[in-house]
Design brief:
The protein is of the alpha/beta class and 568 residues long. It has 11 helices and 22 strands. The radius of gyration is 24 Å and the shape is globular. The protein starts with a helix and ends in a 38-residue tail after the last strand. Helix 5 packs parallel to helix 6. The protein has 2 domains: 342 residues, Alkaline Phosphatase, subunit A; 87 residues, no CATH class. Helices cover 22% and strands 19% of the residues. Strands 1, 2, 4, 5, 6, 7, 8, 9, 10, 11 and 12 form an 11-stranded mixed sheet that branches.
Length: 568
């Protein structure tokens, strides 16, 4: 009798322990963040998209909450991703510009990312898609809290064909585009038409194999960044054109993920967030999206550059069919999700994001925790918002004066300048009526707030991870080689301010004569020299440029240590 009693008690204890483990797991929600690339505010059906449909995203909004004043912390790729994963404004972590292949700096592994917070809580973590926070090993996903990684280390246009599938020769300034599985390159120049499908398949597999434990899936899609890639199933299906096809495939991907959650009975314990990294690439013509009622797009701190579509869904936790108009942003995801997972935001450093769970859960008394929101571009504070008021400080920006056309080609963009300007976003979301003279007291108030913010950044910012020349040498093989332009590198005072395209520097698929001069952007004189592959020419060119100069992407890696000559 005693033996049976012992057996019974043992079974009971084991069963109770298993039950407790499941209960503990179920108290921690699964987290999925879908982060698209260059998708405009209007480019979802429930945000008034035209020319294509997004039934899965629309259903997700009907079953969850739609945010109408949700911001990315930057109007360009790398800084926006740094903000999401660290919960801070990009300048605070030293990532203020777009990073390029083997850039000299990237996200510091000393930063505490959302993935690291969740991993400490027992979560399985995966990054599936575009990383773009530095491609040196110490900056890559496996060093930033992710157990798994499948995707591209940077933008899909940073490859030899510079966005054109039809060219027969390598004509750009990049080497082969690598596709990673964890820390290994498994393909070079993958078929971009298959990327969304492949990311989705990997994501579904990750969910299914981790269904019995808490997981965090970060899915930063490569699309709809140009060059647009779309599988045959969705190609040519929309009235909008290829961009619309790409969005419909992304919508299918969201639907596939939501279906997988339901099939595995994970639906009611999973928070799903859908948003974009920055506004639409308006210069891409019809190959880009739309910002709806907002001014400008990607690369600017007008609302069109940083106001994002955002949908959140968690059955039984987030009320259905609600619309939230409070100021929220990608930085808020870290502190909010950390709390939901039983943790908290880092306490040993400044975090700019705020816990927005009261807003997400439908608390009718909840207000935005952000009294102010700051707009940064290239490390400079360009604007500040408080309530309905937004003040732009004088700055340059690139204005697309031609509405996106029908042929998908680059449309003309011109450098413009905005004076000190005050807008009421509730009454004037398009930022067209400057009220700076009418409300000087508001201008003074916002200016004072901005000065305090800049002082805070100066006192409480961290450094990115810097790569030394010695560290770079294993990557020498990434230098493109060949008879065409990929074998040549531009030298000169050359930046990306006017964004007029490389056509003003060279014509595609022609060879260059050594020492011949060409007019670069901003009418600067540049010349081309040939790289002969010697290690002593292999140097961090970013030292010659200010950190905010994107021109380093077109002039890197071949100067001598004196930084003023090129060996022949």
């Amino acid at each position: 009798m005693l033996r049976y009693t012992i057996v019974f008690v043992t079974i009971f204890v084991v069963s109770f322990a298993i039950s407790c483990q499941k209960s503990e797991k179920n108290n921690k929600p699964n987290i999925i963040i879908v982060f698209t690339d260059d998708q405009g505010y209007q480019d979802v059906g429930c945000y008034d998209a035209q020319g294509f449909d997004t039934p899965n995203l629309d259903k997700m909004a009907a079953e969850g909450m739609r945010f109408n004043s949700f911001y990315s912390a930057s109007p360009v790729c790398s800084p926006s991703r740094a903000a999401l994963l660290t919960g801070t404004y990009p300048p605070r972590v030293g990532i203020s510009v777009v990073l390029y292949p083997i850039s000299s700096f990237g996200l510091n592994p000393d930063e505490i990312t959302l993935a690291e917070i969740l991993k400490e809580q027992g979560y399985a973590t995966a990054c599936v898609g575009k990383w773009h926070l530095g491609d040196y090993p110490a900056m890559m996903p496996l060093k930033q809290g992710f157990d798994e990684y499948f995707g591209l280390p940077y933008s899909n246009d940073m490859w030899p064909w510079q966005g054109d599938y039809k060219r027969k020769h390598r004509t750009a300034l990049y080497s082969d585009l690598p596709l990673y599985l964890n820390d290994t390159v498994i393909e070079k120049n993958p078929d971009q038409n298959q990327l969304t499908k492949r990311y989705t398949e990997y994501a579904v597999n990750f969910i299914e194999k981790n269904k019995d434990k808490s997981f965090f899936l970060y899915l930063p899609h490569t699309m709809p960044h140009i060059p647009l890639g779309v599988s045959q199933k969705f190609s040519g299906k929309t009235a909008y054109g290829r961009y619309g096809d790409v969005i419909e495939e992304i919508d299918w991907s969201v639907g596939k993920i939501l279906k997988t959650l339901k099939e595995n009975k994970l639906d009611k314990n999973t928070l799903v967030v859908f948003t974009s990294d920055n506004g639409p690439w308006l210069t891409a013509g019809k190959s880009g999206g739309k910002a709806g009622p907002f001014r400008e797009g990607k690369g600017t701190t007008f609302e069109g550059g940083v106001r994002m579509p955002c949908i959140m869904r968690w059955p039984g936790k987030i009320p259905e069919g609600k619309i939230n108009n409070e100021i929220t942003c990608t930085m808020d995801l870290l502190p909010t999700i950390a709390r939901l997972a039983g943790s908290s935001a880092p306490q040993d450093r400044v975090i700019d994001g705020r816990d927005i769970w009261p807003l997400m859960s439908g608390d009718t008394d909840a207000e935005s925790p952000h009294k102010t929101f700051f707009y940064h571009r290239k490390g400079k504070l360009q604007a500040v918002r408080s309530g309905d008021w937004k003040l732009h400080f004088p700055h340059k920006y690139n204005h697309v004066f031609d509405i996106p056309g029908t042929n998908g080609n680059q449309v003309k963009e011109v450098e413009s300048f905005i004076e000190l300007s005050l807008y009421n976003l509730r009454e004037d979301p398009g930022e067209t009526k400057n009220l700076v003279d009418k409300y000087p007291e508001i201008v003074d108030k916002l200016t004072a707030i901005a000065k305090t913010h800049l002082q805070d950044l100066a006192e409480n910012s961290r450094k990115p991870f810097f790569v030394t020349d010695k560290n770079w040498k294993p990557y020498k093989d990434r230098l493109a080689q060949g008879k065409y332009i990929s074998d040549w590198w531009i030298i000169g005072n050359f930046d990306n301010t006017e964004r007029q395209g490389m056509d003003s520097v060279y014509k595609p698929e022609i060879e260059f004569k050594p020492n011949k001069s060409y007019k670069g952007r901003n009418k600067k004189i540049a010349r081309w020299q040939q790289y002969d592959g010697k290690d002593n020419e292999y140097i961090n060119l970013a030292k010659m440029f200010s950190p905010s100069d994107e021109g380093v992407a077109y002039a890197r890696r071949i100067f001598t240590e004196n930084n003023n000559t090129v060996k022949k």
